[in-house]
Each structure stands twice: as structure tokens, then as C-alpha cells.
Amino acid sequence: MTEYDVRMEAIKRYLANEKPCDIYKSLNRSKAWFFKWLKRYQEFGEPGLKDQSRRPRNSPNKTKPDMEQRIVNIRKTLAARSTLETFYAPIGADSISWELNKLGIEADKMPSIATINRILKRNGLIKKSVKTQRKSVIPYPSPVVEKPNDVHQLDPVGPRYIKGNNGVERFFSIHLVDCFSKMVVIRQYEDTQNQTLINFLTKEAWPNLGLPKVLQVDNMLSIKGSNRYPRSPGNVIRLCLLFGIEILFIPINEPQRNGVVESFNNTFNKIFYQRQQFTDLVHLKNESAVFERFYCHKRPHSKLNVAKHGSKIPYQVHMNKDFRAFSSNFTLKDFRVKGKLKIPLAEGKISFIRWINKNCQLDIFSEKFPVPESLKYSYVKASILTKEQCLQIWHENNLVKEFPYYLME
Questions:
Q1: Which helix (H) or strand (E) holds 307?
Q2: Which of 195, 229, 306, 363 is deepest in the core (most CB within 10 A)?
Q3: Cβ–Cβ under 8 Å, residues 159 and 153
Q4: Most confident of 107-121, 313-327, 379-393
Q5: What pLDDT is recorded for position 343?
Q6: Is the backbone of residue 330 left (phi > 0), alpha (psi -120 to 50) or beta?
Q7: What pTM, to 2 d.p., does this model score?
């Protein structure tokens, strides 16, 4: 029996001269309930027993038709990508809000992000969203990000291919993102060997962004060094130590832990690489520079907000803070021996985040270290201290184990 049926039965029994108290008690309802629906019946008849909409008759805060049309027009303009200003622009509610702000819409008249999304949905301008995975409840020792250059994430993408005037050309695109400001540096190369990565960091990334406290990377061989000599760190690691940078390796086979740069990789792929045809690699590199400038200097970032970051534009956020500049006089010439680069091993920290499985072993450059069983099925942070020549294992900010760890010069 539906609620409507219960109300009808109560009224029929009342019309049959049954006492109200007997009716509502037998139906397990209150006195107020009975007389409410009796009054409705007396005023409107049987239709009055149906549920009525709770929507207010007047909506004083309803978006004005001209504002709704303006939002629709902005969305269509951004989606058309017909100008240099809109070619790489995002088209979501956050970006539309930013465009309204640029038009001088006052704060008290600015529709909320939720309202803009409802307007877009009402006008058929939103595609069905993909459900995201639930976040893990297992504690993860992420590095602290509170200002620009606290953490940079580095990720080489590729190989990729373009088919143009020179036939098929193969390339890698190396990306570095500042986790706070979202500033990016993008360059294309023929390979991702350690010398290429060093050139990218010293000639492109750090001169533009400054030196980070932490450089977060995956476990690729050209960064680690040599599988044959795991205790002889590669030159990328040595370069970081030379400048007092902690290099941090994410868990093996968990690229999502470099989520900021992985998110940018997705944007790069969809908005830049897949959207246009390139005549050759030179054309791609030139257009990549245009995309980088737009992304950093003009494109409002959805993860930035004025209250926390001071702006939604990555460049304005990044340059609004003091940071450790990279010396323009730096050269690698002093570190070449018989033409081979050999950067000395400086004092510092080489760190790893690792998942401890049922075997209770920690994997550091393919070497296994036993850990307490209490750490099973948890993440730990392990750090090689080059001065002390030891390996420390931390879990939730507590030092739980330490091993001697002697590095090869």
C-alpha cells in the first residue's frame, strides 16, 4: 500500500463515520497527520491527497536569462577553439567562471560553479562524466607541497610518432610540473637517456622554474643509473644531490603517484598532440612552445584558486613567491673526464616510496631488505643518506629500521 492509498483509506473511513482517533491509531499515524490530510481533502478533493512539489513558486536567486545565455555563448566559443586565445583553452565551468570574471561580472552576481554546471547540463553542453576511482584509505607518505618549488614531478612521455614531410619521425616529450603553481616545462628529444634528462633539467626546467626541494620521478633506468652497479647512483641522481635536491622515486608500477604530471600528460595528449597535424618535428617543437606559453601564462588552472594561490594562472602563482634560482653560469664541463660525464657524489638524500607486500621486503634498486612484519601491506618511505652511508626506513613519520648502505663513488 502506497502512502496515497493510506490517506485514501483514512478519508473513506472518516466518511463512513468512524472516529478519527480510531482511524489514525489503527494506521499507525499521528493526530496531526490525519487532520492535515483531512483539510487537504476538504479543500481540493482526492487530488489534494497527492504529494505536492516542494519547489518554491518564486526563485529570487534564479539565474537571469541573459546570464544563462552568456554562459552558453562562452562555452560554445571556448569549445569552437577558433582563435589563438581559445585553441588550447579548457571549456569547463571553472574556465567559464574565469571568463565571466574577466568580463567584469561582480562577485555578488557571479553564478556558482554548480550553477554553471547545471546551466550547461540543461542546455545539453555536458558529456557524461567518467566515474573516478575511490581514493585509497591506506596512508601514503606524499611530500609536503605548500609553495612553488616544494616538489617538481618529472615524466618523459613516449616514444611518440608524427607522419609529415620527413616521413615518420620518432620523439619523446619530457614534461616537468611544479606541484603547487602547476607551471610546466615541455621539450621534445630523440631519446630519454641520462644526458638528455640532465640537459633538460639544467638548460630548460630549472632556469625557468628555479630549483625544487624535491624532484619526484618514476623508476626508469636512465634516472636510477645501472642495474649492474645499483650502489653507484646515476648522473641524474648525482646532479640532484649536487644542488641539494632530494630525489624521490615513486612506488614501482604506480604511475598514478606522479598524479600532477600524469594529469598534465593527459591534457597534453588530448588538447595538443591529438588535435592537430604536424608537418615535421620542428613544427611540433615550435607549436609545443606556443602551447606551453599559453598553458602557463593565460590558461586558468582548475586546481588553482585565488584565495589559496593568489591567482588561477600558473605563471602568476609561481612568480609571486621567492624561490631558489638556478645559476646561469652553471656548466657540466668541469665534470667531464676524458669526455665522459662523472658528477661527484655530494651529501644529500635519495628517497623511495615503496609498498611492502606479504614478503616483507623493501626493494631498492633491485636489492631486497627485510622489514618488520608490522609493515606488511603498507607504504614506507626509505631514504639513503649519502653522508652517513645508511638506509633509513620510515613509516608514518616514525623511523622503524636502519641499514648500513655503502655507496660507490
A1: helix 306-309
A2: 363
A3: no
A4: 379-393
A5: 87
A6: beta
A7: 0.73
